[in-house]
Amino acid sequence: LAASGLAWFNQTFGTAFTQQEILAQVGLDQEAISNIAREAARGIFGIALSVLGGIFGLFTFGLIAFYLSADGPRVRKYVARMLPPQSQAVFMNVWDTTADKTGRYVAARAVLAAINSFFSGIVFAVIGLPYWLPLALWTGIVAQFVPTIGTYISIILPVIVGLLSGNPWLGLIVLIYALIYQQIENLTIEPKISAKAVDVHPAYGFVSVLLGAALFGVAGALLAVPVGAMILALVQTYVKRHDLIDGLDLPDDVVDPAG
């Protein structure tokens, strides 16, 4: 990668720098280079573990969702029969609410992944990035279904491909596009789609993801929004609300978690 970038720089600007000259100018010896390489390897290893953890969490989530969709009605009845009659209606409501919120959440992430892949594919194809189609699909899927860090690790592979393509400018263009698109998605696309899907305020969903990731890791982050939406729906259903006494009216701009 370094040799490729240096060759491109020399060819573009008519220079004749060598790696040895550059290292001598910045005061790096063989030991310093080895230390940097070790630190970089540790960072790459950590990222790889995070990616594998995210993929495993996604696979686990998909497997659970598949079995629940296949045997859901039978399991629902089986568990309900073990409960006393007065608790069966509550359990049924909890089950149905959970299934509905989870399905809506997965559908929302799939829509966001499709939008991300679509625009990424257009940009990658226009700039001539090699393997633009699989890279666009990778970017969309990983960004939406690997929680917390998916947004960042999804763009690493396309950037590396761009840097190694013989024209390092492609990697820079991909990085700039990813930063711009992520801001647009975070501010406009994602809040609207997620809020409509699970019917919760975006701030409530964000806090749910942070708590889920802190308590249960990747699986907790994946399930945080639908579980949080389920809890909110149950609270709204079973917790009785009372009118405030005079003088305790809240301001109109207080955020309602239900959006």
General description of the model:
There is one protein chain. The protein has 259 residues and is an all-alpha fold. It has one domain. It is 81% helix and 0% strand. The protein is built from eight helices and no strands. Helix 3 packs parallel to helix 8 and helix 6 packs antiparallel against helix 7. The protein is elongated and about 85 Å long. It starts with a helix and ends in a 21-residue tail after the last helix.
In short:
With 259 residues, the protein is mainly α. The chain has helices at residues 2-13, 19-26, 30-81, 85-127, 132-145, 150-163, 169-198, 202-238.
Strand content: under 5%
Describe the largest sheet: none
Helix/sheet category: mainly alpha
N-to-C CA distance: 48 Å
Give the SSE string: HHHHHHHH
Output mean pLDDT.
75
Number of strands: 0
User: Low-confidence runs (pLDDT<50, min 5 residues)?
Assistant: none
Quickly count the helices: 8
Oligomer: single chain
Number of domains: 1
Radius of gyration: 25 Å
